[in-house]
Amino acid sequence: QVQYVESGGGLVQPGGSLRLSCATSGFPFSEEIMTWHRQSPGKARDWVASIFPAGRAFYSNSTRGRFTVSRDNDKNTVYLLLNSLKPEDTAVYYCQHYGSTTWGQGTSVTVSS
Questions:
Q1: Residue 41 Ramachandran class (φ > 0 left, ψ -120 to 50 alpha, else beta)
Q2: Tens digits of per-residue pLDDT, 34-50?
Q3: What does the buried/exposed string (b/e) look like for 9-32 if buried means 16 or more CB atoms within 10 Å of the residue's CB?
Q4: N or C terminus: which one in the chain shows less Cβ crowding within 10 Å?
Q5: How many CB atoms lie within 10 A of CB 34?
Q6: pLDDT per residue over 12-31, tens digit each?
Q7: Angstrom distance (rounded) from CA 109 to CA 2
Q8: Whole-number mean pLDDT of the chain?
């Protein structure tokens, strides 16, 4: 079955960086658009970024220029590099392939001094 295992979150100071990973299984990873989403406390889950199989990437207005999504099709893994982090980036981050209804457990990012 489809599985996503997110990792790499943690506590970081404003302006800091983190690299999130999402290991996947159960679907043809190299053929699928991969997406990152996040859910801040008390808010709905929001789209963050997407990456097409060949590597073209798109970002939300709030993350463009600070976050970078990448993928390794040999490892069935998608990454999200978070730079210049702000307190409002605090959230649980999830990955998913486009059209999936399955979610992983997410990885928690807290940006605080």
A1: beta
A2: 999 999 989 999 999 99
A3: beebeeeeebebbbbbeebebeeb
A4: N
A5: 28
A6: 999 999 999 999 999 999 99
A7: 24
A8: 97
